[in-house]
Amino acid sequence: MPDTHAQGPRPVRAAIVYDFDGTLARGNLQERSFIPEVAGMNHADFWHDVKRLAKAEDADEILVYMHLMLDRARAAGRPVTRAQLRAHGADPDFFDGLDHWFDRIDAFADDLGLQLDHYVISSGIYEMIEGCALFGKFRQVFASRFLYDTNGEAKWPGVSINYTTKTQFLFRINKGIDNVHDTDAINRWMSEADRPLPFDRMIFIGDGDTDIPSMRMVTSEGGCAIAVLDPYQWTEPRSVSKIHKLIAEDRVNFVAPADYLPGNQLDVIVKGALGRIALKQGLPVS
């Protein structure tokens, strides 16, 4: 007898991988309240100190800014805790449309026969992203994070993600590894056919210099890279010059304002990229 419970083919997996600061929200999350209220500095002075110390010590800027967060907070008598970081990340200045972007784009992908997952790879602080309302929309967030003592106080960086290490996490997504600690799995050989999420089914969306290696890697492997820019900066000469350079150097496929509202440029580009993935998988696209 035929199996009346037989299911159709499983949806084809695809993913959108986002940077966070400057891509989903304006500025850096640390600047919203942590730097002025806890570190007691304006953000320009804080980042100036980061660059100065990184240069003086020939150190990684991400580790330096994480060190300064802990150092300035202790000096102010307000040691960093996980709960504190979550609270300081609770109110990002999200770009327009993100409150319904994920549901809309998931429904569009589903109509194409795609199972769409969303990831974040960020040099920002995991615990701050964890505190925001959109955290549950992501299958996984890979971001810099702290180690904590038994009292919940942050003591040391546990994960530091800079512009080159971002590419490592693209490989983790590619191989289906949803954690940071498993070095055996990331180094283990896996045939291209067995990888759960091939690069040509990835869309990477980022805004800054720290995203360039990831953009280049995704495009070189057949995926789609989109550079976004705060709509308020769209006509600034420095910002426009950066856009020109990204296109000229073949780092990205598309450039658009970071506006996630229906029918806007980014919405059209992402839907087109998903349609291309579906067509390459032999799925019908109306």
- Helical residue percent? 40-55%
Mean pLDDT level: 91
Low-pLDDT residue spans: 1-6
* Quantity of strands, as a count: 7
Q: What report would you give on this structure?
A:
- The structure is a single chain.
- With 286 residues, this protein is an alpha/beta fold.
- The protein has twelve helices and seven strands.
- Helix 3 crosses helix 4 and helix 6 runs parallel beside helix 12.
- The longest helix is centred in the last third of the chain and has 16 residues.
- The protein is globular, with a radius of gyration of 20 Å.
Q: Could you give a quick summary of the protein structure above?
A:
The chain is α/β, with parallel strands linked by helices and 286 residues long.
Keywords, separated by commas or semicolons:
single chain; disordered N terminus; 7 strands; 286 residues; 12 helices; 42% helix; 17% strand; globular; seven-stranded mixed sheet; alpha/beta
Element layout with pairings:
Blueprint: E1 12-18, H1 29-32, H2 34-39, H3 43-57, H4 61-75, H5 82-88, H6 98-112, E2 114-125, H7 126-130, E3 140-148, E4 154-159, H8 166-175, H9 183-187, E5 202-206, H10 212-220, E6 224-229, H11 237-248, E7 254-257, H12 265-280
Parallel strand pairs: 1-2, 1-5, 2-3, 5-6, 6-7
Antiparallel strand pairs: 3-4
Helix pairs in contact: 3-4, 6-12
